[in-house]
Fold each of these.
Amino acid sequence: MSEQTWDLIVDANDKGGRASFKKIWQYRDLLWLLVRRDFVAFYKQTILGPLWFFLKPVFSAVVYLFVFGKLAGLSTDGIPPALFYISGITAWSYFSETVGKTADVLRGNAAIFGKVYFPRLIMPLSIVFSNLLKLGIQLILIVVILTYYLITTDLVSLTPAILLLPVIVLVIAVQALGVGLFVAAISTKYRDISMLIGYVLQLGLFVAPVVYPLSSINGKFRLLVSVNPMSFPLELFRYSLFGTGTFSSQGILYMIVSTLIILLIGLYAFNKGEKTFVDTV
Amino acid sequence: MSVAIRVDNISKAYQLGVFNTGSFSSDIARWWALKRGKEDPFLQIGQENDRTSIGGSNIVWSLKDLSFDIEQGDSVGIIGRNGAGKSTLLKILSQVTHPTEGQLKLKGKVASLLEVGTGFHPELTGRENVFLNGAILGMRKQEIKQKFDEIVAFAGVERYIDTPVKRYSSGMYVRLAFAVAAHLESDILIVDEVLAVGDADFQKKCIGKMNQLGDSTGRTILFVSHNMSSIKALCKKSIFLEKGKVHSIGETGDIIGGYLSAYSPTKTGDGYLAQGASLQGTGEIRYTRFLTCKNNEGCVEFFFGEKPSLIIEVEVFKAVSDPAIGIHVVSVYGDTITMITPDKNYKPIPLEKGKYQFKVLLDEVLMPGEYSFNLTISKYNTGSDIDFIESAGTIRILRDSVDQQLDYPWATVHGYYKPRSNWETIRI
């Protein structure tokens, strides 16, 4: 028989990943439908519906305002406390929720992955996007409060830096995706890490400028917080919105490099793990 | 004809037991060995998948050096006992998991149906789920839109299409799920036993739909089932897997025949079963002999209309007060067509320690074809199995009759046996 062409070759010795941009692009409808599913299923059979997207950060901000602002008296960098806390919570919860859900993506969807093949990256991407949708809605709330303060006070000012906001959000999304993919790949075999990640995300809140600004700390602790790749994105998130924040050109370079490294490690681990994880999960 | 699927020396190893710290240290040892360019030390000690014996290694080869080609447009059934590697093969073919060794080559778009309704979300409506499930199976949104009305009509759930599927009856749910799958367009379709769900009418509809797809579009179908009737109805060719290897491959009729006879216990010409032929059940009583006879002599071929007799012997190791003996007559497609019992009311006969022989005359006329016999004995009161032997013997009923006067005349054999009946013909 003459040599024939194949559309797909699966080779056991092929160590590389099997997902390509082309394949993921072919499944873009699925990506969109999954985002829609997450969004719709979130508030089905609730009375308040999508309002819940606002209520969660508002409740947290009120508690933080009381505990960290009033009781502990932490500085808010001159930004009105309500704005400071709600922006920190919104950005941080986008990161931590995306990491948390992505970390569980292989185990949580094992029933689907065990029965049908589509590029596995579609699932984590759908988490990133559906949380992005949520973030977008929460940003509306921030903009409303911001507008109030812009009109009534001169504590905040609108600068051209707001145009940077999409870039900062992208950086946070990519970091969250990278960390989540890495944990997802390892946790299919060693569950220990999925236990660990819960604590890391809880405690990470305190080694990142969420409830305090970077400008309020000094010395060794400042160095420690600066090493956290999420610190500069958080500072820049506030800077782009309110025009106040601490960062340097080295800091921005560090942010870009660390984000790319995190993404590459995450993608590598995930692509390696996703081929056979259904056997071990 | 071109080849649509080429399986080239595919093997798949599974690790038994639990994953714990031991697996972490062996992972490191394995990584170190591979780094130095050595072979994986843990795969070398693997063994074939024989679940009855405990091996020295906790690696088992579910598939070992499997090779075959499937031509484009063929519909191929995959048969084999539980643990033969059928599901693993389907998982590799549908890319759900990766082979440990070997190569798989595919030509054309593959769709796999290892389950219906994958990804159905209970909170979403039927309409939303059709789109989601279709997309998971690899359909584009536009494609689903075009077929949407057809899918809903096929499932017969028009009225409920905007209701969340958590309020569906299980039948509606399955019908909708299957309807999506049945409208998948692909060059290769891989189907696990999804037809086991749904009522009989719907099953027929599904087989019809799949047959239609197979014939009209030159689609290649791979189908796994324990139900030989549906394999026979759907597939021209079949592959018989045994212990992760291809036992035989060929026309479905031949392969199914071979499959059924491959599992007859070894026995002598007198029908004595080898010792240890069966180790199932609690074992107070064991079948020791099974012989099909004509005029008290062993025989496996009978003319149409002849009544085979059976000689069955058992050894009772411990007296049982309520043994219920049942001889299952099994068609070539694996359906048990009837059960023969010593007493017409299924009452048990107490058996003391010792050996017994039963002589049984089958008093009904069997239709032409092949039949095998499963021997069962269980406790009448508790229902627990004492002994079970699958396919203890096979007989063939010919189309010809003894005197050539009562030959079976029709081209198709209808059913399995011919009950005695009285006909009166009255002109009215």
Amino acid sequence: MLESRKLTLGYEQHMVIKDLSFCIKPHTITTIIGPNGCGKSTLLKALSKNKKIASGDIFIDNQSIHSYSHKTLAKKLAILPQSPLVPDDFLVRDLVSYGRNPYLDWMGRLKEEDYRIIDWAINETGITHLQNRKMSTMSGGERQSAWIAMALAQQPEILLLDEPTTYLDIAHQHEVLELIKRINGEMGITVVMVLHDINQASRYSDRIIAMKEGCKVIEGSPKEVVTKEILKEIFGIDANIYEEVSYGYPYFIVK
Amino acid sequence: MKTDFRDTPRYKGMVLIGLILFVIVSLFISIGLGAYKVGPMDIIKAIFVEKSGMNHNIIYNIRLPRTFVAGLVGVCLALAGAILQGIMRNSLASPSTIGITSGAGLMSVICLVLFPQYEYLVTPAAFVGAVLTTVLIFILSWKDGINPLRMVLAGLAVSSLLNALVDLILIFFPDRVHNTLGFSIGSLSVKAWNDFNRIWPYALIGFIVAMILSKKLNILLLGDEIAGSLGVNVERLRVILILLTSLLAASAVSVVGLISFVGLIVPHISRILIGSDYKYLLPASALTGAGVLMLCDTIGRVVAEPMEIPVGIIMAIVGVPFFLYLLRGGIKSARK
């Protein structure tokens, strides 16, 4: 269980996240939505201990993330930033193998079990035929699959993704989201992601957290969050809400 | 698309073997050439068989320690450069561009002036200078990560100032530092076995620690966020690596003075040859650095006989055009 209690953090003068509390239930998909600069990416940094917290705290299984060692935390929580860096000539398989880092001794040697898990992660994300390629030769969707494979090799309980569909065309966006859905459904990994496309958030999430200016505006099921009033309040847009016929989730079109 | 042969461990192993041969050839060239020329067989005889005589004297007491010191200086500076380029995620980083060598140089000179009788204090003093300079550059160029432009500018400013201070001290106390000119441009002249003994432990320890951390360096290339998410204590790792590069650069500087370009260019050449995976890049840089410095020192000894050109000048003459070529995008075309 991932929980944020009265979290406040930011830069010297300007607090980017203010008094943010939420509780994410295990095995669910939660999507954070909100306008640019609402503090989503800063929140993800704080969750990976990459940003100092001013007050409040983040808890995993009722224990502050600051009481976990870096390695123990990495076994529970994996994070993929928005557009991660990678040297052009790193091989896909090597990249995935770095997911085993939290489990390795100080010499960093991979054991038989590690190789088995790397193979499994590569297989699950459907990039077996690409594993010996350079990252630079991969398409955007394939790269994203490689990064997700790396996170899977980490065997986390919780996976955080910052805009996993950025720079992808609609077909690949769908592919990546389906993969995330499968990871959640089959492996029971709790997923927290940031998405810009609210209709996609509505389609793929159990819960949605809507943020504005560093504060949580509302948290609830897609039906509770994707409404005329909320869209007006957060993004200042007038929209009509419809219900998707076969799945029953709400979607909107701007007036 | 099939796997590129150049991406296989087998190819990379072959490159490393090639580089080992390159170092061995450079070793014989460096020992054999000079005002007095000796063939490869005579070199082996002079080292392992003869116990006295002119060949033995020149080879064993003069050329051999000098060549070894050259090689190890190359190893230290190349490793320091490769590691710095990783932790700063910037291909323009190197011990000389960001002023680490100047900081180490200043502290060495101060130490030589204040405590001329304690030669063994020079390397630790240089180490302190190197660490302080690196920390200063980090503070000056850090803003949510290293800002490359700030880093280069801060390095330029800091190293100019420190170099000026080195020159100032050398002007006031010319008798305290042997070969003052040699120190400020980097020279291997009159290096003997005691110099070799001052550098090999650092080179060895530096290489071993760097190899142990090579995987972590790879992870650091993926950015702080990913590295943190993968369980790497990014801040601690960065401090350890800064101490390591400072140690490597300091041991080189305290023996030969301020040599530029080795730490900048050798990692680039190695990256073109073997790729950016640190597991291979570090040994490749060490070998290339050793060979390049031995050859450049030999060129300096031979090209204007009987005058000797300090290796620092040769490095600059060879290095600057190569660096400009790299800046013009040579890296990319060479990889493809």
